[in-house]
Design a protein that fits this description.
The chain is mostly helical. It folds into two domains: 20-239, no CATH class; 262-450, no CATH class. The chain is built from 16 helices and no strands. The protein has helices at 9-42, 44-52, 54-71, 73-80, 84-119, 127-139, 141-156, 161-184, 188-214, 229-261, 265-281, 283-301, 305-341, 347-380, 383-414, 416-448. It is globular and about 70 Å long.
């Protein structure tokens, strides 16, 4: 556990962010390894079948991941306020909601796979592989939720190291199981999906064992299970908007991909290479921004609004420092990076990838405020405001793809991410100040009335 209500906000954010950053980098490595295994041993059609489900799977996975993060905000707030019985009661309310939502959602999604794949214009030659892969992934969502929720609870107490170790374990196990199910058992794409589900389930139960052995504050007793409609509604009020926000952002990425697909093979290849670089270069910024929500939640629970503001400033300054380093790397090594990700790339692909990455990295100057401010707002207890920031992000991408793509072509599409972050920051920063004033008034009234 890590009590973030005392000590340097900068140190707390760095301590929390470092394992998260390593986890993001490890996920990048795992993603590449998984793709290589499927592509090398199953062939192009089965690889394309897995890739064709990415939009669908991202919508699902991001929704449930956001849902779990939202459920744990009141856990962080009550931990910061040292209201430990309320921590357990909110945890039990989240478990009940998660079980209901997952069981209903999994059933509906499993029955909708065929129509959704047809709606996405999945080619007939890869349709069976796409259907087989995503069906196993969907049926495994309950196990994925075990990891998401248990890891989110651990992070809400200020511990990001344990979820990182579980993530590393799951990724390594996934790679081993990929080889076993695909090479030895010949299960094809079903084996790849089954490996993912088993690895996530194993890491989830490992998190539960860690909670059982080391975190008595999260041990639910009979009193904690007492039904409380108020707590259930409050937990749902936090979780549902964050889940929807995550899905909206995933949909925005699909809009960008659609626009790029209409610009030709070179544009697609350049954007793919740029996307690989984006994942690496933005990872420390995303790690810093994941730290601010539990930091804000704990300090709101302790009624320390001053520390929330200090944490936001520290996160933004860290992000700007990281951006300067990323910009230097992109200017001097950007073309070499693109060449690494594309085999025997034509000069046009290298230049397009270099341009896309450079525009993205320049946009990192607003990526920090655009992502850490909604995280702060979530931790402050205003999830609906954070939901709106997801909508503004999609609007920015739509503007670039539908308005700028025509007159400016590939360059216009490259501004999709930057404009998404500008739109979000322009809304989120004033919204943060308004939410802060509301909390100041609320805390002042609590002090007056004892």
């Amino acid at each position: 556990m890590n009590n973030m209500t005392q000590g340097s906000p900068l140190k707390h954010i760095l301590k929390f962010a470092f394992p998260v950053w390593l986890g993001i980098l490890f996920q990048q490595f795992y993603s590449v390894a998984d793709t290589v295994i499927v592509g090398r041993f199953l062939g192009l059609n089965q690889l394309a079948g897995v890739g064709a489900t990415s939009i669908f799977s991202n919508l699902v996975i991001w929704f449930f991941g956001g849902l779990c993060n939202g459920f744990c905000i009141p856990v962080a707030q009550n931990f910061g306020g040292k209201r430990y019985e309320m921590v357990r009661r909110y945890l039990s309310a989240g478990i009940r909601l998660a079980m209901i939502i997952v069981l209903c959602g999994t059933t509906i999604m499993a029955l909708s796979i065929g129509p959704i794949l047809h709606a996405l214009n999945t080619p007939a030659e890869i349709f069976p592989f796409a259907h087989a892969y995503i069906l196993v992934i969907i049926l495994g969502v309950p196990f994925t939720m075990v990891y998401n929720y248990s890891a989110s609870c651990i992070r809400s107490l200020g511990d990001s190291r344990t979820p990182f170790l579980m993530l590393v374990f799951a990724s390594l196990l996934n790679i081993v199981l990929d080889l076993v199910f695909i090479l030895w058992l010949g299960l094809g794409v079903r084996g790849a999906a089954l490996a993912t589900v088993i690895a996530q389930a194993t890491s989830g139960f490992a998190c539960l064992i860690h909670i059982r052995r080391n975190l008595p504050i999260l041990h639910i007793n009979r009193q904690s299970w007492d039904e409380s409609h108020t707590l259930t509604k409050e937990t749902l009020r936090y979780g549902l908007p964050m889940g929807i926000r995550s899905s909206i952002i995933a949909a925005g990425a699909a809009i960008l991909q659609y626009a790029v697909n209409g610009l030709g093979t070179y544009a697609i290849a350049g954007m793919v290479a740029s996307g690989k670089m984006y994942g690496i270069l933005s990872s420390p910024i995303m790690a810093v921004n994941q730290a601010v929500s539990p930091f804000a939640g704990q300090n709101i629970g302790a009624r320390r609004l001053d520390r929330v503001s200090q944490g936001l400033r520290a996160a933004i300054l860290l992000d700007l420092g990281i951006t300067c380093i990323d910009l230097l790397i992109s200017i001097f090594f950007g073309r070499s990076f693109v060449a690494l990700f594309v085999e025997n790339p034509p000069v046009e692909v290298i230049e397009l990838g270099y341009l896309a990455n450079l525009i993205n990295v320049i946009g990192f100057t607003v990526l920090g405020p655009a992502t850490c401010t909604p995280g702060i707002i979530q931790g402050m207890g205003y999830p609906m405001v954070s939901l709106v920031t997801g909508m503004t992000e999609v609007l920015g991408r739509m503007f670039a793809c539908w308005v700028l793509a025509g007159p400016f072509g590939f360059t216009g599409v490259c501004f999709a991410n930057t404009l998404a972050w500008v739109f979000t920051a322009a809304f989120a920063l004033p919204a943060y100040l308004i939410c802060k004033k509301k909390l100041e008034k609320k805390f002042a009234l609590e002090a007056v009335h004892g």
